[in-house]
Amino acid sequence: MDFVPTPSQTVGPFFRIGLTEKYSKPCIAAPQAKGERVGLSVRVLDGDGAPVNDALIEIWQADASGKYKHPDDPQSKTSDPGCDGFGRLGTDEQGHCQFDTIKPGRVPGPGNALQAPHLNVAVFARGMLKQFYTRIYFAGDPANQQDPVLALVPAERRETLVAQSDPTQPGFWRFEMHLQGEGETVFFDV
Amino acid sequence: MGPSTNERSLITPYRRHAAGTQPPAPYEPYKSTIKRSPTKPLIFLPHTLSEVTGPLFGEDAIAENDNDLTRHYPGEPQGERIIVTGRVLDSNGRPVPQALIEIWQANAAGRYRHAKDQHPAPVDPNFGGCGRTLTDDNGSYRFVTIAPGAYPWFNHYNAWRPRHIHLSLFGRAFLTRLVTQMYFPDDPLFPYDPIFNSIPDEKARQRMICKFDMETTQPQWALGYKFNIILRGPEQTPFET
Questions:
Q1: Are strands A118-125 and A172-178 parallel, antiparallel or unpaired?
Q2: What pLDDT score does B236 carry?
Q3: ipTM of the complex
Q4: Is A188 helix (H, G, I), strand (E, B) or coil?
Protein backbone atom coordinates (compact mmCIF):
# COMPACT_ATOMS: atom_id res chain seq x y z
CA MET A 1 0.00 0.00 0.00
CA ASP A 2 1.23 3.46 -0.77
CA PHE A 3 0.46 6.48 1.31
CA VAL A 4 -0.22 9.18 -1.23
CA PRO A 5 -2.47 11.83 0.36
CA THR A 6 -6.18 11.59 -0.42
CA PRO A 7 -7.17 14.17 -3.05
CA SER A 8 -9.01 17.28 -1.97
CA GLN A 9 -12.56 17.93 -3.23
CA THR A 10 -14.72 21.00 -2.95
CA VAL A 11 -16.47 21.80 0.32
CA GLY A 12 -19.52 22.45 -1.88
CA PRO A 13 -22.57 24.66 -1.30
CA PHE A 14 -23.96 22.82 1.72
CA PHE A 15 -21.02 22.63 4.13
CA ARG A 16 -22.86 24.66 6.78
CA ILE A 17 -24.91 21.67 7.92
CA GLY A 18 -21.78 19.68 8.72
CA LEU A 19 -19.31 22.37 9.66
CA THR A 20 -20.31 25.86 10.77
CA GLU A 21 -23.79 25.03 12.12
CA LYS A 22 -22.14 22.55 14.47
CA TYR A 23 -18.94 24.39 15.19
CA SER A 24 -18.40 28.05 14.40
CA LYS A 25 -15.74 29.91 16.27
CA PRO A 26 -15.62 33.71 15.94
CA CYS A 27 -13.61 34.06 19.16
CA ILE A 28 -9.97 33.09 18.60
CA ALA A 29 -8.74 34.54 21.89
CA ALA A 30 -10.86 34.86 25.03
CA PRO A 31 -11.36 38.25 26.71
CA GLN A 32 -8.75 37.37 29.35
CA ALA A 33 -6.06 36.57 26.75
CA LYS A 34 -2.96 38.72 26.93
CA GLY A 35 -2.30 41.16 24.11
CA GLU A 36 -3.82 43.91 22.03
CA ARG A 37 -7.47 43.18 21.18
CA VAL A 38 -8.28 42.88 17.49
CA GLY A 39 -11.67 42.90 15.82
CA LEU A 40 -11.18 41.50 12.34
CA SER A 41 -13.54 41.75 9.42
CA VAL A 42 -12.81 39.45 6.49
CA ARG A 43 -14.60 39.89 3.18
CA VAL A 44 -14.26 37.46 0.25
CA LEU A 45 -14.80 38.62 -3.34
CA ASP A 46 -14.72 36.65 -6.59
CA GLY A 47 -13.19 37.56 -9.95
CA ASP A 48 -16.14 39.83 -10.78
CA GLY A 49 -15.84 41.60 -7.43
CA ALA A 50 -19.04 39.89 -6.27
CA PRO A 51 -19.24 38.78 -2.64
CA VAL A 52 -18.65 35.06 -2.06
CA ASN A 53 -21.52 34.19 0.28
CA ASP A 54 -20.60 30.53 0.74
CA ALA A 55 -16.96 30.58 1.78
CA LEU A 56 -15.51 29.01 4.90
CA ILE A 57 -12.71 30.94 6.57
CA GLU A 58 -10.36 29.29 9.06
CA ILE A 59 -7.67 31.14 11.01
CA TRP A 60 -4.72 29.82 12.99
CA GLN A 61 -2.48 32.11 15.02
CA ALA A 62 0.04 32.38 17.83
CA ASP A 63 -0.62 34.06 21.19
CA ALA A 64 0.68 37.51 22.11
CA SER A 65 4.10 36.11 23.00
CA GLY A 66 4.49 34.40 19.62
CA LYS A 67 3.86 30.88 20.91
CA TYR A 68 1.53 28.42 19.19
CA LYS A 69 -0.72 26.25 21.33
CA HIS A 70 0.79 23.08 19.91
CA PRO A 71 3.33 20.47 21.10
CA ASP A 72 5.45 20.91 17.96
CA ASP A 73 6.23 24.51 18.88
CA PRO A 74 9.74 24.05 20.39
CA GLN A 75 9.93 27.48 22.05
CA SER A 76 10.44 27.16 25.80
CA LYS A 77 7.82 29.77 26.77
CA THR A 78 4.38 28.57 27.85
CA SER A 79 1.34 29.33 25.75
CA ASP A 80 -1.41 31.64 26.99
CA PRO A 81 -4.40 29.49 28.02
CA GLY A 82 -6.71 32.35 27.03
CA CYS A 83 -5.61 32.20 23.41
CA ASP A 84 -6.94 29.15 21.64
CA GLY A 85 -5.49 30.29 18.32
CA PHE A 86 -8.20 28.85 16.09
CA GLY A 87 -11.19 30.52 14.46
CA ARG A 88 -13.74 29.37 11.90
CA LEU A 89 -16.71 31.09 10.25
CA GLY A 90 -18.82 30.93 7.11
CA THR A 91 -19.32 34.14 5.13
CA ASP A 92 -22.70 35.88 5.02
CA GLU A 93 -24.61 37.24 2.00
CA GLN A 94 -22.11 40.12 1.76
CA GLY A 95 -19.18 37.71 1.69
CA HIS A 96 -18.29 38.85 5.17
CA CYS A 97 -17.41 37.35 8.53
CA GLN A 98 -15.96 38.82 11.72
CA PHE A 99 -13.50 37.44 14.26
CA ASP A 100 -12.55 38.52 17.75
CA THR A 101 -8.93 37.96 18.74
CA ILE A 102 -5.62 39.46 19.84
CA LYS A 103 -2.66 40.57 17.77
CA PRO A 104 -0.21 37.65 17.77
CA GLY A 105 3.44 38.01 18.74
CA ARG A 106 6.36 37.34 16.43
CA VAL A 107 7.12 33.68 15.78
CA PRO A 108 10.40 32.22 14.52
CA GLY A 109 10.77 31.87 10.78
CA PRO A 110 13.35 30.62 8.32
CA GLY A 111 16.98 31.41 9.00
CA ASN A 112 16.25 32.20 12.64
CA ALA A 113 14.58 35.46 11.59
CA LEU A 114 11.46 36.47 13.47
CA GLN A 115 8.29 36.73 11.44
CA ALA A 116 6.06 39.78 11.71
CA PRO A 117 2.72 39.31 13.53
CA HIS A 118 0.40 37.44 11.20
CA LEU A 119 -2.67 35.24 11.03
CA ASN A 120 -2.63 32.08 8.92
CA VAL A 121 -5.75 31.80 6.81
CA ALA A 122 -7.35 28.96 4.85
CA VAL A 123 -10.34 29.62 2.58
CA PHE A 124 -12.70 26.92 1.29
CA ALA A 125 -15.75 27.41 -0.96
CA ARG A 126 -18.01 25.98 -3.58
CA GLY A 127 -16.02 26.46 -6.78
CA MET A 128 -12.74 25.70 -5.04
CA LEU A 129 -11.54 22.13 -5.40
CA LYS A 130 -9.04 22.67 -2.59
CA GLN A 131 -8.42 25.27 0.07
CA PHE A 132 -6.22 28.27 -0.59
CA TYR A 133 -3.80 29.52 2.01
CA THR A 134 -3.00 33.15 2.65
CA ARG A 135 -1.83 35.31 5.57
CA ILE A 136 -3.06 38.48 7.22
CA TYR A 137 -0.46 40.98 8.42
CA PHE A 138 -1.17 44.27 10.21
CA ALA A 139 -0.67 47.58 8.40
CA GLY A 140 1.89 49.89 9.94
CA ASP A 141 3.74 47.23 11.94
CA PRO A 142 7.47 47.99 11.51
CA ALA A 143 8.25 44.25 11.67
CA ASN A 144 6.56 43.84 8.27
CA GLN A 145 9.69 45.34 6.71
CA GLN A 146 11.83 42.42 7.91
CA ASP A 147 9.30 39.62 7.53
CA PRO A 148 10.92 36.66 5.73
CA VAL A 149 7.64 35.53 4.15
CA LEU A 150 6.57 38.96 2.89
CA ALA A 151 10.07 39.15 1.41
CA LEU A 152 9.14 36.22 -0.87
CA VAL A 153 6.26 38.24 -2.31
CA PRO A 154 6.80 40.75 -5.14
CA ALA A 155 6.81 44.20 -3.51
CA GLU A 156 3.79 45.43 -5.49
CA ARG A 157 1.63 42.55 -4.20
CA ARG A 158 2.54 42.66 -0.49
CA GLU A 159 -0.30 45.05 0.29
CA THR A 160 -2.79 42.29 -0.55
CA LEU A 161 -1.68 40.47 2.61
CA VAL A 162 -2.11 43.42 4.93
CA ALA A 163 -5.24 44.23 6.98
CA GLN A 164 -6.00 47.92 7.36
CA SER A 165 -7.09 49.46 10.64
CA ASP A 166 -10.44 51.22 10.65
CA PRO A 167 -9.77 54.89 11.46
CA THR A 168 -13.21 55.26 13.07
CA GLN A 169 -12.96 52.20 15.34
CA PRO A 170 -9.73 51.70 17.30
CA GLY A 171 -8.69 48.04 17.38
CA PHE A 172 -10.81 47.12 14.36
CA TRP A 173 -9.17 45.77 11.21
CA ARG A 174 -10.44 44.97 7.74
CA PHE A 175 -9.11 42.45 5.26
CA GLU A 176 -10.48 42.01 1.74
CA MET A 177 -9.67 38.74 0.03
CA HIS A 178 -9.82 39.04 -3.76
CA LEU A 179 -9.80 35.55 -5.21
CA GLN A 180 -8.74 36.91 -8.59
CA GLY A 181 -8.61 40.04 -10.72
CA GLU A 182 -7.56 43.54 -9.70
CA GLY A 183 -5.65 43.37 -6.43
CA GLU A 184 -5.73 39.56 -6.40
CA THR A 185 -4.70 38.39 -2.95
CA VAL A 186 -1.44 36.50 -2.70
CA PHE A 187 -2.00 32.80 -2.01
CA PHE A 188 0.75 30.45 -0.93
CA ASP A 189 1.87 27.03 -2.05
CA VAL A 190 2.32 25.38 1.33
CA MET B 1 24.35 27.61 19.06
CA GLY B 2 24.25 28.81 22.67
CA PRO B 3 21.52 29.56 25.13
CA SER B 4 19.03 30.59 22.45
CA THR B 5 18.87 27.11 20.89
CA ASN B 6 15.41 26.44 22.31
CA GLU B 7 14.10 29.54 20.67
CA ARG B 8 15.30 28.48 17.26
CA SER B 9 12.93 27.43 14.58
CA LEU B 10 13.57 23.71 14.83
CA ILE B 11 10.83 22.31 12.67
CA THR B 12 10.17 19.34 10.46
CA PRO B 13 8.73 20.41 7.12
CA TYR B 14 5.90 18.38 5.58
CA ARG B 15 5.97 16.46 2.33
CA ARG B 16 4.67 18.23 -0.77
CA HIS B 17 2.04 16.71 -3.07
CA ALA B 18 3.16 14.70 -6.10
CA ALA B 19 2.10 16.13 -9.46
CA GLY B 20 -1.40 15.17 -10.57
CA THR B 21 -2.57 13.83 -7.22
CA GLN B 22 -4.53 16.93 -6.21
CA PRO B 23 -7.04 19.03 -8.18
CA PRO B 24 -5.97 22.05 -10.21
CA ALA B 25 -7.47 25.50 -9.86
CA PRO B 26 -9.27 26.50 -11.95
CA TYR B 27 -10.75 23.38 -13.58
CA GLU B 28 -12.91 24.62 -16.45
CA PRO B 29 -15.40 21.72 -16.59
CA TYR B 30 -16.43 22.68 -13.03
CA LYS B 31 -17.71 26.12 -13.92
CA SER B 32 -17.78 27.74 -10.49
CA THR B 33 -13.99 27.40 -10.28
CA ILE B 34 -13.50 29.91 -13.10
CA LYS B 35 -14.22 33.08 -11.09
CA ARG B 36 -13.05 31.69 -7.78
CA SER B 37 -9.48 30.64 -8.55
CA PRO B 38 -6.36 32.78 -8.34
CA THR B 39 -4.92 33.57 -11.77
CA LYS B 40 -1.46 34.43 -10.49
CA PRO B 41 0.94 31.65 -9.49
CA LEU B 42 0.90 30.61 -5.85
CA ILE B 43 4.01 31.72 -3.95
CA PHE B 44 6.10 28.83 -2.67
CA LEU B 45 6.23 28.99 1.11
CA PRO B 46 8.97 27.12 2.97
CA HIS B 47 7.32 25.69 6.08
CA THR B 48 7.61 27.63 9.31
CA LEU B 49 6.08 27.04 12.74
CA SER B 50 2.95 28.74 11.40
CA GLU B 51 2.29 25.97 8.88
CA VAL B 52 3.40 22.90 10.84
CA THR B 53 1.27 23.66 13.89
CA GLY B 54 -2.52 23.81 13.93
CA PRO B 55 -5.61 23.35 16.07
CA LEU B 56 -5.82 20.07 17.98
CA PHE B 57 -9.00 18.52 19.34
CA GLY B 58 -9.95 16.25 22.21
CA GLU B 59 -12.91 14.23 23.40
CA ASP B 60 -14.75 17.41 24.40
CA ALA B 61 -15.18 18.18 20.69
CA ILE B 62 -17.64 15.33 20.27
CA ALA B 63 -20.76 14.03 22.00
CA GLU B 64 -22.29 10.58 22.30
CA ASN B 65 -23.80 9.32 19.02
CA ASP B 66 -22.19 12.10 16.99
CA ASN B 67 -20.81 9.33 14.76
CA ASP B 68 -24.18 7.60 14.33
CA LEU B 69 -26.27 9.68 11.95
CA THR B 70 -29.20 7.30 12.23
CA ARG B 71 -29.74 8.20 15.89
CA HIS B 72 -30.03 11.97 15.86
CA TYR B 73 -33.84 12.06 15.73
CA PRO B 74 -36.54 10.10 17.54
CA GLY B 75 -37.42 7.96 14.50
CA GLU B 76 -35.39 5.85 12.08
CA PRO B 77 -34.28 7.58 8.87
CA GLN B 78 -35.37 6.22 5.48
CA GLY B 79 -32.90 4.41 3.27
CA GLU B 80 -30.11 1.88 3.37
CA ARG B 81 -28.20 1.82 6.68
CA ILE B 82 -24.42 1.61 6.18
CA ILE B 83 -21.25 1.51 8.27
CA VAL B 84 -18.27 3.55 7.04
CA THR B 85 -15.01 2.82 8.78
CA GLY B 86 -11.29 3.11 8.16
CA ARG B 87 -8.06 4.64 9.34
CA VAL B 88 -6.48 8.04 9.02
CA LEU B 89 -2.79 7.70 8.24
CA ASP B 90 -0.11 10.16 7.22
CA SER B 91 2.00 9.90 4.10
CA ASN B 92 4.62 7.98 6.08
CA GLY B 93 2.01 5.34 6.92
CA ARG B 94 1.74 6.40 10.56
CA PRO B 95 -1.68 6.58 12.21
CA VAL B 96 -3.07 10.04 12.91
CA PRO B 97 -4.70 9.84 16.36
CA GLN B 98 -7.26 12.37 17.62
CA ALA B 99 -7.98 13.66 14.13
CA LEU B 100 -11.34 15.44 14.05
CA ILE B 101 -13.50 14.13 11.19
CA GLU B 102 -16.68 16.00 10.30
CA ILE B 103 -19.05 14.61 7.67
CA TRP B 104 -22.16 15.83 5.86
CA GLN B 105 -24.26 14.34 3.11
CA ALA B 106 -27.58 14.16 1.28
CA ASN B 107 -30.29 11.81 2.51
CA ALA B 108 -31.33 8.61 0.73
CA ALA B 109 -33.40 10.65 -1.73
CA GLY B 110 -30.50 12.93 -2.65
CA ARG B 111 -31.66 15.93 -0.64
CA TYR B 112 -29.55 17.96 1.80
CA ARG B 113 -31.16 19.42 4.87
CA HIS B 114 -30.04 22.88 3.79
CA ALA B 115 -32.23 25.90 3.01
CA LYS B 116 -30.56 26.42 -0.36
CA ASP B 117 -31.04 22.87 -1.63
CA GLN B 118 -33.93 23.14 -4.10
CA HIS B 119 -33.86 19.56 -5.41
CA PRO B 120 -37.51 18.38 -5.46
CA ALA B 121 -36.86 15.28 -3.36
CA PRO B 122 -38.21 14.81 0.15
CA VAL B 123 -36.44 15.96 3.29
CA ASP B 124 -36.30 13.11 5.80
CA PRO B 125 -37.57 14.36 9.19
CA ASN B 126 -35.36 11.74 10.87
CA PHE B 127 -32.11 12.50 9.07
CA GLY B 128 -29.89 15.57 9.53
CA GLY B 129 -27.02 14.30 7.42
CA CYS B 130 -24.09 15.41 9.54
CA GLY B 131 -21.80 13.79 12.08
CA ARG B 132 -18.37 13.96 13.66
CA THR B 133 -15.85 11.81 15.42
CA LEU B 134 -12.24 11.64 16.59
CA THR B 135 -9.84 8.95 15.44
CA ASP B 136 -8.52 6.64 18.17
CA ASP B 137 -4.86 5.95 18.96
CA ASN B 138 -4.72 3.65 15.96
CA GLY B 139 -6.10 6.33 13.62
CA SER B 140 -9.35 4.37 13.29
CA TYR B 141 -12.81 5.87 12.95
CA ARG B 142 -16.34 4.59 12.38
CA PHE B 143 -19.61 6.16 11.26
CA VAL B 144 -23.09 4.68 10.95
CA THR B 145 -25.23 6.51 8.41
CA ILE B 146 -27.61 6.14 5.47
CA ALA B 147 -26.36 5.62 1.91
CA PRO B 148 -26.76 9.02 0.23
CA GLY B 149 -28.69 9.41 -3.02
CA ALA B 150 -27.39 10.97 -6.22
CA TYR B 151 -28.68 14.47 -6.91
CA PRO B 152 -28.81 16.96 -9.77
CA TRP B 153 -26.91 20.25 -9.97
CA PHE B 154 -26.66 23.10 -12.42
CA ASN B 155 -23.10 22.85 -13.71
CA HIS B 156 -24.12 21.60 -17.17
CA TYR B 157 -27.12 20.03 -18.90
CA ASN B 158 -28.40 16.95 -17.02
CA ALA B 159 -25.64 17.21 -14.42
CA TRP B 160 -25.84 14.72 -11.53
CA ARG B 161 -23.40 14.18 -8.70
CA PRO B 162 -22.35 10.60 -7.98
CA ARG B 163 -23.38 9.46 -4.51
CA HIS B 164 -20.89 10.82 -1.99
CA ILE B 165 -20.23 11.78 1.62
CA HIS B 166 -18.33 15.01 2.35
CA LEU B 167 -15.49 14.68 4.87
CA SER B 168 -13.48 17.37 6.62
CA LEU B 169 -10.33 16.43 8.56
CA PHE B 170 -8.00 18.21 10.94
CA GLY B 171 -4.68 16.45 11.34
CA ARG B 172 -1.69 17.67 13.30
CA ALA B 173 -0.88 20.81 11.30
CA PHE B 174 -2.73 23.65 9.59
CA LEU B 175 -1.28 22.37 6.31
CA THR B 176 -2.67 18.84 6.82
CA ARG B 177 -6.21 20.19 6.68
CA LEU B 178 -8.24 18.16 4.18
CA VAL B 179 -11.76 18.48 2.82
CA THR B 180 -12.70 15.69 0.45
CA GLN B 181 -15.57 13.51 -0.73
CA MET B 182 -15.95 9.74 -0.40
CA TYR B 183 -17.59 8.00 -3.36
CA PHE B 184 -19.12 4.52 -3.64
CA PRO B 185 -17.85 1.68 -5.84
CA ASP B 186 -18.97 1.36 -9.47
CA ASP B 187 -21.05 4.53 -9.63
CA PRO B 188 -22.31 4.95 -13.21
CA LEU B 189 -22.06 8.74 -12.87
CA PHE B 190 -18.25 8.82 -12.49
CA PRO B 191 -17.51 9.49 -16.19
CA TYR B 192 -19.80 12.54 -16.17
CA ASP B 193 -18.75 14.24 -12.92
CA PRO B 194 -16.24 17.10 -13.27
CA ILE B 195 -15.56 17.25 -9.53
CA PHE B 196 -14.51 13.59 -9.35
CA ASN B 197 -12.60 13.90 -12.62
CA SER B 198 -10.74 17.02 -11.54
CA ILE B 199 -7.98 14.78 -10.15
CA PRO B 200 -5.63 14.17 -13.09
CA ASP B 201 -3.97 11.03 -11.73
CA GLU B 202 -6.18 7.96 -12.21
CA LYS B 203 -4.78 6.13 -9.17
CA ALA B 204 -5.25 9.18 -6.98
CA ARG B 205 -8.85 9.52 -8.18
CA GLN B 206 -9.58 5.90 -7.25
CA ARG B 207 -8.44 6.65 -3.69
CA MET B 208 -11.64 8.64 -3.18
CA ILE B 209 -13.79 5.52 -3.67
CA CYS B 210 -14.56 3.39 -0.63
CA LYS B 211 -14.54 -0.42 -0.78
CA PHE B 212 -17.37 -2.73 0.15
CA ASP B 213 -16.16 -4.80 3.10
CA MET B 214 -17.84 -8.03 4.19
CA GLU B 215 -16.00 -8.04 7.53
CA THR B 216 -17.43 -4.65 8.41
CA THR B 217 -20.88 -5.69 7.21
CA GLN B 218 -23.12 -6.76 10.08
CA PRO B 219 -25.61 -9.59 9.59
CA GLN B 220 -29.26 -8.56 9.49
CA TRP B 221 -28.30 -4.95 10.07
CA ALA B 222 -26.01 -2.94 7.72
CA LEU B 223 -23.56 -3.11 4.81
CA GLY B 224 -20.02 -2.04 5.60
CA TYR B 225 -17.56 0.08 3.64
CA LYS B 226 -13.87 0.72 4.26
CA PHE B 227 -12.34 4.09 3.54
CA ASN B 228 -8.78 4.94 4.56
CA ILE B 229 -7.72 8.58 4.41
CA ILE B 230 -4.14 9.74 3.96
CA LEU B 231 -3.06 13.15 5.24
CA ARG B 232 0.24 14.85 4.49
CA GLY B 233 3.02 13.67 6.77
CA PRO B 234 6.30 15.22 7.85
CA GLU B 235 9.56 14.63 6.05
CA GLN B 236 11.50 12.02 8.00
CA THR B 237 14.24 14.05 9.59
CA PRO B 238 13.83 17.33 11.40
CA PHE B 239 16.31 20.00 10.45
CA GLU B 240 17.15 23.41 11.71
CA THR B 241 16.23 26.23 9.36
A1: unpaired
A2: 77
A3: 0.97
A4: strand
As a whole number of angstroms, the distance between CA A37 and CA B102 comes to 31
Asked whether B161 and B189 are in contact (CB, 8 A), the reply is yes
**Candidate from A5, A58, A128 with C-beta closest to B36:** A128
**CA quadruple A36, A84, A58, A74: dihedral sign:** positive
Q: Is B38 within 8 Å of chain A by CB?
A: yes
Which residues in chain A are closer than 8 Å to B210, comparing Cβ atoms?
Answer: none
Report the candidate in A74, A45, A77, A73 with the shortest Cα–Cα distance to residue A61: A73
Contact between residue B235 and residue B15 where contact means Cβ atoms under 8 Å apart: yes
C-alpha distances out from residue B191 to B31, B161, B179, B195, B198, Å: 17, 11, 22, 10, 11
User: Strands B43-44, A188-189: parallel, antiparallel or unpaired by DSSP?
Assistant: parallel
Interface contact B114-A17, CB threshold 8 A: yes
Strands B81-90 and B140-146: antiparallel
Backbone φ/ψ region at A73: left (φ over 0), alpha (ψ -120 to 50), beta: beta
**Count of Cβ atoms closer than 10 Å to residue B12 Cβ:** 15
Residues B120, B126 contacting (CB under 8 angstroms): no
pLDDT digit of tens for each residue in chain B (241 aa)? 333 333 455 789 999 999 999 999 999 999 999 999 999 999 999 999 999 999 999 999 999 999 999 999 999 999 999 999 999 999 999 999 999 999 999 999 999 999 999 999 999 999 999 999 999 999 999 999 999 999 999 999 999 999 999 999 999 999 999 999 999 999 999 999 999 999 999 999 999 999 999 999 999 999 999 999 999 999 975 555 4
Strand-pair partners of B204: none
Q: Which residues of B are catalytic?
A: 112, 151, 161, 164, 166
Whether residue B27 contacts residue A127, with contact meaning beta carbons closer than 8 Å, is answered with no
How confident is the model over A153-169, as pLDDT tens digits?
A: 999 999 999 999 999 99
Measured CA to CA, the distance from residue A5 to residue B19 in angstroms comes to 12
Domains belonging to chain B, first-starting first, are 5-230 (2.60.130.10)
Kindly state the helix (H) or strand (E) to which residue B52 belongs, with its residue range: helix B49-52
